[in-house]
Amino acid sequence: MFKVNATQHVLAVKDLEKTESYFLDKLGFSVRFRVDGWSFLSLGSFHLMIGHCPDEISARDTHEHSYFAYVNCEGIDEIYRDYQQRGAEIFQALSDKPWGLREFGVATPEGHRIMFGEDIASSANS
């Protein structure tokens, strides 16, 4: 039977050190390991590979195409408060959506965007 154990996203960044620090300090990721211009980061089963790619177009310059992940989660209110306290760049405030999800969005210094969402029925039971 097919099963997804985790996802791993790959991001090209111009400033590896600044981007890694943001994910660690503002979004609560941890370093799995580093190798030759790459940082492998995790937040639970949400994994990232960020690579130093100075010649790539920055995510911010792609405008609305800078979304790279939608994270279905539990405990969304808790992580939202944590991100507010850490000073994460929240571009979309936490709110209930008509499609049945409670959502918010964060952005990185280079403009990559991540959406977090929880089923409203699940968050009401939390």
Automatic annotation (TrEMBL):
Oxidoreductase found in the keyword field: yes
Highest taxon of the lineage: Bacteria
**Residue ranges annotated for the VOC domain, each copy included:** 3-119
MF (Gene Ontology): dioxygenase activity
The UniProt keywords, alphabetically, are: Dioxygenase, Oxidoreductase
Q: Does the keyword Oxidoreductase apply?
A: yes
Coiled coil location: none
Instruction: Write the protein's name.
Output: Glyoxalase/Bleomycin resistance protein/Dioxygenase superfamily protein
UniProt lineage? Bacteria, Pseudomonadati, Pseudomonadota, Gammaproteobacteria, Pseudomonadales
